[in-house]
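Why predict the complex rather than its parts? Because the way molecules touch one another can change local conformation, and only a joint prediction can capture that. The input here totals 541 residues.
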Amino acid sequence: MSRMSRRAFISTAGATGAAALSAAALGAPKLAGVTAKLGPEGPLPDGPVVAYVRDAKAGEVAVMVGDREVAVKDAALVRRIVDAAS
Amino acid sequence: MSSHREAPAISKDPVADNTDTYAFVSPDRPDTVTIITNYIPVEAPAGGPNFYEFGDDVLYEIHVDNNGDALPDVTFQLRFQTLLRNDDTFLYNTGPITALDSLTWNRRQLYSLTRVSGGDSQVLGSGLTCPPCNIGPRSTPDYESLADRAVHNLGGGVRVFAGQRAEGFFVDLGSIFDLGALRPVQNFHLLPLPMAAGVNSTRDANVHTIAIEVPIRMLTRDGSAPSNPLDARAVLGIWGAASRRRVSVREKAARDIETGPWVQVSRLGNPLFNEVITPMAEKDLWNALPPSQDAQFLKYVQHPELAGLLPLLYPGVFPSLAGLTAVRADLVAVLLTGIPEGIVDGFQNFTGPTPADMLRLNVAIGPTDTPNPLGLVAGDAAGFPNGRRLVDDVVTIELRAIAGLTYTLINKSYPLDGAVGLVTDGLTIANSGVSYLDHFPYLGVPHDGFHTPAA
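Output of the joint prediction:
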């Protein structure tokens, strides 16, 4: 996963409550499992983080934080998001 | 409003809709350049209680290219913040607004101005006040004086103003968009009507203006103030732009979230470019791209649709234009590259081969006391397309240019149609009803809502 870890992505999305991908949508057990696996990686942002699946088949997720857009490629993450929404 | 509501997407987003950009050597301070970018088209002066204002969620920018690559070398950024003083009233003001900090003025805007150049960012001013909109004689009793106090001197010779002004662009939109009719010559139209005087569609409208006055030395590539018009350092490429965050999320209680990088939604260099050159299907794309990527629109300048329409709409009036199938290198020069040395004696505003829609201002050409509204084509090198002044009649200039007038600059043997000199929408400074100030910010005092429209 480039530039932003999966853990940071999921954690910040859950923390803001404003992300397109929410912790509630993912389900607590899955989120907890990922967090435990990757461990802490720096402070969480104060502002909102918004993520959306740009191309599900390509496993592409775009994450917006502050003035930045981070492209994430993770087919497994996309699958969990899609499963959570189904 | 030479570029108002000119593209499908931006027509639904007026606070980010860059309607006009002007750039000229300041007539009363010729060691400076004044750049004006206007937003919010066709403001109805009585449009309360939520009167017009800039967008807090919009990044407004003025870009200057000083080395001909069509990329910004100096950028001025403005961000706005709206403040509500009284949560318990629906009113914009609860009494006369006599000062920029009047307690009776309920909804104010402040802004910051930042200069970005060479990777460095410098805040030139913050907490700067906008004037209120011009409500009427009870609410804004001495508007001109009040608005004058919203001209901010920031040191280093920089001045800035951001707020409502009277629309300074005049055009007969009603006729032009009715199948290309021009009232003074509409008796020659394919669907003729009796000839008539032009009607200024924007006569009673206001607009929101960002105006900055900057020393020439702050804009040129080497900090010089060139005096020779043929000096390449004297030419500046200038355009305005507005951007929004990539993502907006509608949240409860209108606590919307905006995040992600800025994405350009509007831009404007030359008047009418996106309006009448770019096809409808590509107008939104054009607004999203920087001028440095305008090569993809080159073909629309080389063979403009309007040049083909004029002979069809006015049968028999433009026989030479009807037969002109060559690439319009004249329009490419005027709109996309600047005019090279050797075309007009003693003049150039060439920025190089990169096709890019920018105003091109040669700062070595000083202002004139008697500006000709037809600008360069009438022998006044201080006017459009050398930058753009408020008085420049860009509708007539561009109509005549597309009708073939500027083609004679590159092909002396081209038999210019006699009717080209008659092409006009029938409006001039004299009959348009607009008036300007003789000092910064130059655009006139906005129409007030009490008297406009007139009883």
